[in-house]
Amino acid sequence: MSPAIRQIGERADVDPRALPEDVLLSTEPVVLRGVVARWPMAQAGRASAQAAVAYLRRFERQGAPPVAAMVGPPEIGGRFFYNADLSGFNFRQEKVPLGVALNTLLKYAQDGNPPTIYIGSTTIDTWLPGFQAENHLAWGGREPLASIWIGNRTRIAAHQDVPDNLACVVAGRRRVTLFPPQQLSNLYIGPLDYTPAGQPISLVDFSAPDYQRFPNFAQALEHAQTAELEPGDAVFIPSMWWHHMEALETFNVLVNYWWRRTPAWMDTPMNALMLAIMTVRDLPPEQRAVWEDVFRHYVFQPGEATAGHIPEDARRVLSPLDETKARSLRARLLQRLNR
């Protein structure tokens, strides 16, 4: 990748006991140096892989379900991706106890050509109860979903998440490369409904970009931001920013937190995108243009002209939604979709 990529802005003054609102509400990414450096997990991670595993195993829940591990042969070079024709993937999924996965990672830590192993998006409170009590952040009333990500040297293709994200490195080192949401067309995104791990991904190999096949990726790099994170560092990734994650050591652990700035009853906008593809995208051009105006009127630029002429108590879904109205609307949609 280009050495000219600019660095993500940094702060080294953030108190983990009072995460500042200007960070949590930011629309730009920021690296928080040392924000979780005093966590026992980060201290164990700095000591050694063995110390990190021993610390994690203190919290391992007896009788917990197996974790989902992605396992690829050495030949993939840490890059979880599709096969050559995008009909399948270059790795397999395995269900294994968390302790077995940790021991396997330690076993391969000194191997010069190990298989690639990644335990992704594992809910901390389900598999490691008590971990958060010792490794704590103050969220100012938010209740984010806390997950842990464990593996060896891996490369996770650029993808988006709807929630805001605080990703904390607690063992190993990670390189993160971010792109604003507006770089969608320059990142050459793969299938929406067939993905390696749930989110659509960039098809560009960041370690060896094929500019003949993906010429506009050069433009994406002009807007990229990057940083290398040590144990104790974190990066705030705003909603819908593209992020490419590289784990750089033979043993790496990341703890992340997702939260949304919307009520829990609101569905993901991805559902609306899929429905629009099914119902709007392939209309004749003149009809699609009509629906573009309809969406502008009701969704993207609502105003007095949208429902001001309707009595307030008769506006129904044209009035501000709440949980009750959303539940009723969801039931109506399901009834129509299940016809």
Automatic annotation (TrEMBL):
Coiled coil start-end: none
Domain JmjC: 117-274
Top-level taxon: Bacteria
Pfam families (alphabetical): Cupin_8
InterPro entries for this protein: Cupin_8, JmjC_dom
PANTHER family: HYPOXIA-INDUCIBLE FACTOR 1 ALPHA INHIBITOR-RELATED (PTHR12461), HYPOXIA-INDUCIBLE FACTOR 1-ALPHA INHIBITOR (PTHR12461:SF105)
Protein's name in the database: Cupin-like domain-containing protein
